[in-house]
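Please fill in the sequence for the structure shown.

STRUCTURE ENCODING:
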């Protein structure tokens, strides 16, 4: 079991928007709070990005790639002193995969992608990332830019199978961004992604992902990691940021969300499939982690998606 691949698979985008914008003159665009993540690659020119809550803006120049995964409102601008235009108004009626020009173009051109994810597992992706992730590695930047360009081409040409190709490219993009974050920033960082830099922690995490219904204990997970119980528990909490049993419970609940969303799913069946001996024990754990009882949580998520679709 490769935990990173599984998290990407379970978090697969349920919607995505990609395109390119060639801007001329001075402009500022305001984006509201959002789910998912934004990806930008600057083809030429430069612009500022200011994420709410960050102390300083970031200047993006030709060749730069950046990811904004925090969900906070942000502004893209040639000059941050300008009054911003609302992004919904700016891009109203724009087709997915289109390349647009504003004010004649020629000053700054950016390739962009916005991905939303399946309910639940998305937090595994975004919770470990900084509010602004700048991709420094030249090969990773080129790969990200190329993936977005290929997505635009597939959407524009709409050849048979294009939807599957785009979904595949989205997953490649996410994997490369997370790999970069892991390889360049793992030292001293806390979170499941950074723990994958430690082979012993990877073994334990992979075991939980492979058989979440097993009656795991700290001792049996320590055996998988070939460590003493105390040393394993200490290192796991220090690198992942939570105890092994808390991680396992959260993993089970996120898997439960996906199972419960399937047509005809029964709470009791899902509970037993994840190692719980009773529906009541499972429901109590679910409410503790997710904040609501299982069925109420699923119903509220369905309602949120319906409202979001009506607003689009």
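FILLED IN BY: designer on duty
SEQUENCE:
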């Amino acid at each position: 079991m490769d935990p990173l691949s599984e998290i990407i698979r379970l978090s697969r985008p349920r919607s995505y928007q990609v395109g390119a914008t060639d801007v001329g003159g001075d402009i500022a665009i305001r984006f509201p709070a959002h789910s998912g993540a934004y990806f930008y690659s600057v083809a030429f020119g430069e612009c500022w990005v200011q994420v709410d809550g960050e102390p300083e803006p970031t200047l993006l120049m030709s060749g730069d790639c950046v990811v904004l995964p925090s969900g906070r409102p942000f502004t893209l601008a040639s000059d941050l002193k300008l009054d911003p235009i609302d992004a919904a108004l700016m891009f109203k009626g724009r087709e997915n995969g289109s390349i647009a020009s504003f004010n004649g173009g020629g000053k700054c051109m950016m390739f962009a992608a916005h991905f939303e994810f399946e309910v639940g597992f998305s937090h595994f992706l975004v919770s470990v990332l900084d509010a602004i992730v700048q991709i420094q590695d030249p090969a990773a930047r080129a790969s990200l830019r190329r993936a977005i360009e290929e997505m635009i081409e597939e959407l524009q040409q709409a050849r048979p199978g294009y939807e599957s190709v785009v979904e595949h490219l989205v997953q490649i993009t996410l994997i490369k961004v997370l790999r970069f974050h892991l390889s360049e920033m793992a030292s001293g960082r806390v979170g499941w992604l950074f723990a994958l830099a430690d082979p012993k922690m990877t073994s334990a995490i992979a075991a939980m992902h492979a058989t979440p219904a097993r009656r795991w204990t700290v001792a049996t997970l320590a055996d998988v990691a070939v460590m003493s119980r105390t040393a394993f528990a200490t290192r796991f909490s220090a690198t992942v940021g939570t105890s092994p049993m808390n991680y396992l419970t959260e993993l089970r609940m996120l898997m439960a969300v996906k199972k419960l969303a399937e047509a005809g799913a029964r709470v009791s069946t899902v509970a037993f499939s994840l190692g719980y001996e009773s529906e009541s024990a499972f429901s109590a754990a679910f409410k503790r982690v997710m904040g609501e009882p299982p069925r109420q949580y699923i119903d509220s998520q369905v309602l949120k998606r319906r409202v979001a679709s009506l607003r689009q």
